[in-house]
């Protein structure tokens, strides 16, 4: 039994958790306890243990929003007990969802009339959104192949090797061959020309990324569209494009309004975006938008009637909370285009400040691009003394979570550190991070003087070469790099 002692009079009298037996008993780990405990004790013990987690604002590995205004927090708590799927009971929540779809669709230049409802759905992040978009492409391709009397059992999907892991999940779960365009050193995104070369009559779509997980870079959707249009014209196919704008969908419209990546391009049929990234909402909300009703096969849509009106739904989940949907609507009307533009400009400026300081240090190569998601990805110029993993490890001592990881296969010999600049990351924090990076470099240089390392390497070179023993440290780092690459595809949050 977890709590063998019955509550004593002193336990009931002393309201302080620290003066009761609950301060000295361990919390259950495997079995539900037989006895109850006071609500104050349950809260305090869980609260205290959670203090061992990292500080969300200093978690620079994540794209996910960690701070919202108190008024929005109140709305979240007021609606946390609403199940979104109960549309009959919560019609206003459903209407707020539809308003979000309409606003985001028009932000992406969808083909909708002035008072016409756009086609889209709120999802639990971009992973579900991508699954839905992929299913729509697969179903539409299958329907066309069946109508033409052609085989429809071998669909494929073309992406870059830098895609987020949810694309691999979609391919495996729904039996679609994944054709990846390998990245290379110095070019860490999908090459549109090579992508089009992989397209054949069984390709359900080509997926382009607006904001790579690895370095924040935008892929050239306009060039991909133009090359694919030409191939479709030559072959008679109609291979479409999906844009994975999980990170960049709320960035590009405000920082790069002239950039053509969305429904302005004729082959872009669907777009996903994460509301919980630069949409400025807490984790748990994504969106998928289709160009027109024709791009979402009707046999995938379920229809629910609430208050005499038809509500089409297309989701993988059923029950889910309403809070994040309501929070997204709050952010859209609270900030408007003016506010989002200002926030994204601030993120970009803070990213540039960090980048410039890193460049001035003379120790790093900058791997990220100026045009893209506000991310600074950088690698060491000289890794003989220490590597990116050591810097990441030591920055944790200062409270910072800055991930180190290898680039995708064929470029995985390049390790990078990545800092995601979110709305809540201020100029003061950016300057403090630079200061702490310089401190870490100084500490590492003190621990590993270059001259000493060089002498040790020279003394042992012959021995290692003669007996054919591979450096254990290097082997260990190689294993870590491979495993980190797998984990990095899952991050992203």
TrEMBL record:
UniProt keyword list: Calmodulin-binding, Decarboxylase, Lyase, Pyridoxal phosphate
Co-factor(s): pyridoxal 5'-phosphate
GO molecular-function terms, A-Z: calmodulin binding; glutamate decarboxylase activity
Enzyme class: lyase
Residue positions, PTM N6-(pyridoxal phosphate)lysine: 277
Catalysed reactions, semicolon-separated: L-glutamate + H(+) = 4-aminobutanoate + CO2
Assigned EC number: 4.1.1.15
Recorded superkingdom: Eukaryota
Family, per entry: Belongs to the group II decarboxylase family.
Protein's name according to its UniProt entry: Glutamate decarboxylase
Source organism: Flemingia macrophylla
């Amino acid at each position: 039994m977890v709590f063998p002692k019955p509550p004593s009079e002193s336990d009931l009298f002393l309201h302080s958790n620290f003066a009761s037996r609950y301060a000295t008993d361990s919390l259950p780990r495997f079995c539900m306890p037989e006895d109850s405990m006071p609500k104050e004790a349950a809260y305090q013990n869980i609260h205290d243990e959670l203090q061992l987690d990292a500080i969300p604002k200093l978690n620079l590995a994540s794209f996910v929003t960690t701070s919202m205004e108190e008024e929005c927090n109140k709305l979240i708590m007021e609606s946390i007990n609403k199940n979104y799927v109960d549309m009959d009971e919560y019609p206003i929540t459903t209407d707020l969802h539809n308003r979000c779809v309409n606003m985001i669709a028009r932000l992406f230049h969808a083909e909708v009339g002035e008072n016409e409802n756009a086609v889209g759905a709120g999802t639990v992040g971009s992973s579900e959104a991508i699954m839905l978009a992929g299913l729509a492409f697969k179903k539409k391709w299958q329907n066309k192949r069946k109508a033409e009397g052609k085989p429809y059992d071998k669909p494929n999907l073309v992406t870059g090797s830098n895609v987020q892991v949810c694309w691999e999940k979609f391919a495996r779960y729904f039996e679609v061959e994944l054709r990846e365009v390998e990245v290379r050193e110095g070019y860490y995104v999908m090459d549109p020309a090579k992508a089009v070369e992989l397209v054949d009559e069984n390709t359900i779509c080509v997926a382009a990324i607006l904001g790579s997980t690895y370095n924040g870079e935008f892929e050239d959707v306009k060039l991909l569209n133009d090359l694919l249009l030409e191939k479709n014209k030559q072959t008679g196919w109609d291979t479409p494009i999906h844009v994975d704008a999980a990170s960049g969908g709320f960035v590009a419209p405000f920082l790069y309004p002239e950039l053509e990546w969305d429904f302005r391009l004729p082959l872009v049929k669907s777009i996903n975006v994460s509301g919980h990234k630069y949409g400025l909402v807490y984790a748990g909300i994504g969106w998928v938008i289709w160009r027109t009703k024709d791009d979402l096969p009707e046999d995938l849509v379920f229809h629910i009637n609430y208050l005499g009106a038809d509500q089409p739904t297309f989701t993988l989940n059923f029950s889910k909370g309403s809070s994040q949907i309501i929070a997204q609507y709050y952010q859209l009307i609270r900030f408007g285009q003016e506010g989002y533009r200002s926030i994204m400009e601030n993120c970009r400026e803070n990213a540039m400040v960090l980048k410039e300081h890193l460049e001035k240090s003379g120790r790093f190569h900058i791997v990220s691009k100026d045009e893209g998601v506000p991310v600074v990805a950088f690698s060491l110029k000289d890794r003989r003394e220490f590597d990116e993993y050591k810097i990441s490890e030591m920055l944790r001592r200062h409270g910072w979570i800055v991930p180190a990881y290898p680039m995708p296969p064929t470029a995985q010999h390049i390790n990078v550190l990545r800092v995601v600049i979110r709305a809540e990351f201020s100029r003061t924090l950016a300057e403090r991070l630079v200061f702490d990076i310089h401190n870490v470099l100084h500490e590492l240089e003190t621990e590993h003087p270059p001259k000493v390392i060089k002498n040790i390497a020279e003394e042992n070179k012959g021995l290692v070469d003669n007996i054919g023993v591979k450096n254990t440290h290097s082997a260990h780092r190689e294993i870590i790099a491979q495993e980190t690459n797998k984990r990095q595809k899952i991050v992203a949050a």
